[in-house]
């Protein structure tokens, strides 16, 4: 979600990008996409928040212990 970190004011975006430097970028794979869709279909995540569903599914599929937003 590098694009999301780049959005907004330039100074804030720069701080977000610096804070996440050195962190791995998780692969968006079929399992993550399917779980994200399921979270939306089952209304665990509002349909208006597909990015959140993807963030949660990526963390789950890749076994990430913490999800910060």
Structural write-up:
This protein is an all-alpha fold. The protein is built from four helices and no strands. The model has no long low-confidence stretch (mean pLDDT 90).
Please provide a brief summary of the model.
With about 70 residues, this protein is mainly alpha-helical. About 60% of the residues lie in helices and about 0% in strands. The model has no long low-confidence stretch (mean pLDDT about 90).
How would the blueprint of this fold be written?
Elements lengths: L1 H5 L3 H11 L9 H12 L8 H12 L8
Largest sheet: none
Q: What is the radius of gyration computed over CA atoms, rounded to a whole number of angstroms?
A: 13 Å
- As a percent range, the share of helical residues equals 55-70%
The overall strand count is 0
Question: What would the average pLDDT be, to the nearest integer?
Answer: 90
State the helix count. Answer: 4
In terms of DSSP E residues, the strand content is under 5%
| Unreliable spans | none
Structural class: mainly alpha
Q: Compute the separation of the termini in Å.
A: 11 Å
Tell me the series of helices and strands, N- to C-terminal. HHHH
Provide keyphrases for this structure.
69 residues; single chain
């Amino acid at each position: 979600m590098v694009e999301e970190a780049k959005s907004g004011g330039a100074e804030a975006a720069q701080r977000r990008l610096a804070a996440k430097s050195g962190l791995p970028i998780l692969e968006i794979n079929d399992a993550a996409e399917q779980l994200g869709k399921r979270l939306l279909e089952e209304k665990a995540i509002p349909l208006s928040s597909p990015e959140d569903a993807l963030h949660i599914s990526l963390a789950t599929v890749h076994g990430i212990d913490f999800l910060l937003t």
